[in-house]
Amino acid sequence: MLTRDFSFDLPEHLIAQFPPEHRGESRLLLLDRKTGTSSDHVMAEFPELLPENSLVVFNNTRVRKSRIFGRTENGGSVEFLLLKEREPGLWDAVVQRRKRQKIGRRYSFPEGVEAVLVDKPGDRGILRFDPPLDKAYLERNGAIPLPPYIRRSADESDSERYQTVYSREEGSVAAPTAGLHFTPAILHRIRERAEIRYVTLHVGIGTFAPIRTEHLSDHRMHTEEYEVSVETADAVNRARREKRPVVAVGTTTVRTLESAFSEGKLAAGRNSTDLFISPGYRFKIVDHMFTNFHTPGSSLLVMVSAFAGREVILEAYAEAVRKEYRFFSYGDAMFIQ
C-alpha cells in the first residue's frame, strides 16, 4: 500500500491555529465504521454517545516545556527542543540549523546555565548542560512546543490549553490532543454511565512527522515509552471478559493498549513501543476510538484508516472539509464507533 493513498486536500483556513474559546466546545463527528455513515454533534453530547457500561481509557501524559533558546559565543540565537534526558544533564534534542552547529560549540541559557553540543547522531543533537536542568527550570524558562502547522509562537494560554485537564505524568513533547476536548464536567458525566481508567504514553517528536517512504511497509515508527498500571490492566481485562466495549481516547491510548496486549490479555508494566498500525492490523483491545482529524500522509491517519477502513475515513474527512470542521491539534473531534 502506498503512502499517497492516505492524502487528502485540506484548505489552509481549516487548520486550527487556536483552541476554541472555551474548552469542551468543539464540534464532534460521529462515524459508524460499519455503515460509513456520519452525523454532526458537539462535545457536550459525547457522554450520551458512549455505549452503556463502556470502559473509557485516557492517556494522562503531560507536555514538558521543552522548547528553549540558547546563545552562541557570537551572540546568535539557537532553538532547541529537548526530547529525552539520557542521564542528569545529558539531553537528546532537535537542534535548529543543526548542520551549522559544530560539535564542541557552547551555548549560554538563562540563569547562568551553559551547554555544549557533544554529538550529532542521526538527525538529532546531544547536549550536556551545566548545571543539569530540572523541571522547575524548564517551567520558568521553557516554552510549550506547539506543532509546526500552528504558525505562531506559544503564548501563556497554551501552557494550560495544550494540556489535558487530567495530565499527570510529565514527559511528552506533544499533547495527546484528543484529550484536549475534555472538561471536568464532561468527565463527570462520563463516569455516570461508564468506567474511566488511564494509561501513560509519552508522546515523541515522531508524532509531527509525515511518513516519508513511498510504501507503507517501509516506514519505521518512532519509539515511545508507555506504562500500564495494574489497576488499568485489571479493568480492561475485566471489561473484555464481560464483553463491555473499550473506548480509547486518542491514538496514543490506542497504541498503548494494542502494544501492551500479550498472551490474550492486557499486561501491566512499563515498556516501549514502535508499533505501526496500518490497514490489515487486527485490533485486540480497542472497540471504539475517539480522535482528532489528522494530517495527510501521517501514521495517525493510517491508524484510523486501519480501524475504520481507508475509504470510510477519507469520505468522512471529505465530509468534514465540506462542513468546515477544524483540523489537527486544536481542531474538532471524531468518535468512531
Question: What does this entry look like structurally?
Answer:
- The protein is an alpha+beta fold.
- The protein has 2 domains: about 240 residues, QueA-like (3-Layer(aba) Sandwich), CATH 3.40.1780.10; about 70 residues, Thrombin, subunit H.
- It contains 8 helices and 19 strands.
- A 9-stranded mixed β-sheet has the order 2-1-19-18-14-3-12-13-17, covered by helices on one side.
- Strand 15 and strand 16 form a beta hairpin.
- Helix 7 crosses helix 8.
- It is globular and about 60 Å long.
- The model has no long low-confidence stretch (mean pLDDT about 95).
Summarize the SSE layout with pairings.
Layout: E1 27-31, E2 38-42, H1 46-49, E3 54-59, E4 61-63, E5 67-72, E6 77-87, E7 90-95, E8 106-108, E9 114-119, E10 125-130, H2 135-141, H3 158-161, E11 169-172, H4 184-191, E12 194-201, E13 224-228, H5 230-241, E14 246-249, H6 251-259, E15 261-262, E16 265-266, E17 269-273, E18 288-292, H7 299-308, H8 310-322, E19 333-336
Parallel strand pairs: 1-19, 3-12, 3-14, 4-11, 14-18
Antiparallel strand pairs: 1-2, 5-6, 5-8, 6-7, 7-10, 8-9, 9-10, 12-13, 13-17, 15-16, 18-19
